[in-house]
Amino acid sequence: MLYRRPIGSLLLALKKPQLKAFHRALESFDASQAAVLAQAMDQIKGSQFALAHGCQSAPRLQAFPICEYENLRPWIDRFSRGDATALFGSHSGITPQRCRFVTTSGTTGRPKSIPVTPASFAVQAASWQAWGLSAFEAHRDAAFWDVLPVSATTQGSMSGLATWAMQSASFKTLYAVPDRAQRIAPFELKLKALLRLTVGNSNIGMLMTANPSTLLMLVQQLETHGFDLVRDLRNGTFFAGDPVLLGVSGLSRRDIGAARRLDRLLIERGHLTPADVWPRLKLVAMWLGGTLGHYCEALRPMLGHVPWRDHGLVASEGRFTVPLGDGSPDGVLDPRGAYYEFLPAESASEENINGSGGQNGQLIPPRDLIPGQQYRLLVTTLGGLTRYDMHDIIECRGHYGNEKGGAPLIRFLRKSSQFANITGEKLSAFQVAESLTLLATSGRESYQTLKDTRFMTLAPNRDGIPPHYILYAESSCQDRHMWEEIARQLDQSLSGLNCEYQEKRASGRLGPVGIAFLKSGSLEQLRTHHLDRAPGATAEQFKQPVLWDDLTSPLRDMAFEV
Fold first, then answer.
1. Does residue 313 have a pLDDT over 70?
2. Using 50, 70 and 90 to split pLDDT, how confident is the model at 357?
3. pLDDT-based confidence at 6, cuts 50/70/90?
């Protein structure tokens, strides 16, 4: 195994101190957390944000309420427009010019713009390197071969930062494709180009992407276009486009020997598999938790012959966990990534928590998390987010080293009830309600039905090909043609309000909104279902859900058809 052994061995040797530093931070979890909190509070000392919360001198975390992005938006907007002291103290040296800004979908129609300060960039980069070194430590062979990343390259996305800007130069020498290939659009063409660049590269040792749905699409493209890819490998062509126009080197590369080998497999079976084209594949890196199990199971027949490593709990707001084992989304909280607090998952309604500070007394420190219990994650980061509600529901899975009070092992379960998430779009109830309201008030006579409809709710259908959302309607009007037009307009409106939804629709990872009619009395059945699941709740407390998260089975049972 001589191909990458010198580079891989050097990479592991040079970075060994960083992995040791990560484990030392885990072993002194409380001290590491105290240092992060002190740095975060020092950064905002003297800022307009701190002064507005009554902090005339050194800020104390207790002075700040639990919040979400919309509570912080005015301060972040002023900071991004050049008012450096809106969010950080003048002594911190943090200015908009020294920061990156990551754009992601927000709760409303306006995207979130998350500041990435030099300090928050550094801790996220260190966490990514701890993840990579831990994975390579367990799978040393993977470090000796090429890595195929499938990611955005834009600095305005977290995946772009994580794949390109936050990775060390030594790790990027393992990349099998140029970064320019990641910029190809549309998404389907990009996948074809990545396959064309690597179908003859038998030295691929690792596949790396965020979402398993992306790898599923990549494998499907390989099976569909095997003959085209092998022909191009033989002739130095690219069936899906002109390499000169695409401007990507390597798309006209020829490999007669690889073409002959793959040709024989095509003649035998009629299609190619990942094991055929990447026989030295040693590791697959992707998210395994939350609502992504459907894609993982679909990938198992194709990629189940190699170990899988979860990326951890990663968001635009930061990188928070590092999985230390294979085949599980459980990860240890990185004590350097943020200062962590938790709320019981069902402690109170979100309307009573966010922005009020009224539930601060229920906040739980990491050392007190109980294995098997579910919680909501709050973070205070070096990027200016203070007691920020991630809207993530996690489960404690134990503690690092099995020591009570040590760094918790946590697993991401789902977004909170205000959100639904099939493949990274993070659709919010506000966006659905806003879209339906816009349609109902559009003035189109055919949409009068929306006003007269007793109950409507949007819910994910993860079993669809591709997965998509379904608009369930309990209505006296069941004109399917009209409702399909409403669904089409709703799909367009959601794309306009949510940049992540728009991107997933454009790439084909999400299908268009579908329609299902609910039987008469469905709303009352849902009310009863809610009361059965929430002992002590009253009928008046039930709110008609405009976005139904994961509990789609009651809706399916009440629908005429899906």
1. yes
2. very low
3. low
DSSP 271-305: S--HHHH-TT--EEE---STT-HHHHHHHHHHHTT
For the purposes of burial, counting CB atoms within 10 Å of the CB of 3, is it exposed (0-12), middle (13-18) or buried (19 or more)?
Answer: middle
Q: Put the strands of the sheet holding 331-333 in their side by side order.
A: 321-322, 331-333, 408-415, 388-399, 374-380, 339-344
| Domain regions of the chain by residue span | 140-306, 327-418, 427-558
Tell me how far apart the alpha carbons of residues 495 and 505 are, in angstroms, rounded to a whole number. 8
Helix axes 293-303, 212-224, angle to 10 degrees: 40
Six token digits for residue 104 = 């992601």
DSSP 395: E
- Angstrom distances, CA of residue 94 to CA of 40, 74, 80, 82, 207: 12, 18, 11, 11, 36
For 347, counting Cβ atoms within 10 Å of its Cβ (0-12 exposed, 13-18 middle, 19+ buried), the class is middle
CB count within 10 Å of CB 365 equals 14
Q: Tell me, what's the pLDDT at 507? A: 86
Phi-psi region for residue 198, left (φ > 0), alpha (ψ -120 to 50) or beta? alpha
Per-residue model confidence (pLDDT) at position 96: 96
Distances (CA, A) of 90 to 20, 45, 80, 116, 539: 34, 8, 15, 17, 52
Q: What is the pTM of this model?
A: 0.81
| DSSP state, residue 380 | E
Give the type of residue at 62: Q
For position 542, what pLDDT does the model report? 56
> How many other CB atoms are there within 10 angstroms of residue 492's CB atom?
16
pLDDT tens-digit series, residues 130-187: 998 899 889 988 877 899 999 865 656 666 666 667 777 777 778 899 888 888 888 8
> What's the token pair of residue 485?
């037009």
* Cβ count near 141 (within 10 Å): 16
Q: For residues 419 and 432, give the distance between their C-alpha atoms in angstroms, rounded to a whole number.
A: 10
Handedness of CA 367, 317, 70, 434 (dihedral sign): negative
User: 64 near 360, Cβ under 8 Å?
Assistant: no
Read off the pLDDT band of 358 (50, 70, 90).
very low
pLDDT at 553: 56
Contacts 24+ apart (CB under 8 A), 364-371: 365/340, 365/341, 366/29, 366/33, 366/333, 366/340, 366/342, 366/407, 366/408, 367/29, 367/30, 367/405, 367/406, 367/408, 369/342, 369/396, 369/408, 369/410, 370/396, 371/396, 371/397, 371/398, 371/399
Q: Which of 35-44, 141-150, 437-446, 466-475 has the highest mean pLDDT?
A: 35-44
* Geometric angle at alpha carbon 163, from 413 and 366, rounded to 5°: 35
Phi (first) and psi of residue 240, to 5 degrees: -100, 0
pLDDT of the residue at 286: 93
For 183, the token pair is: 């910029």
**pLDDT for res 407:** 92
Token pair 């399917």 is at which residue? 480
C-alpha closest to that of 47 among 72, 21, 75: 75
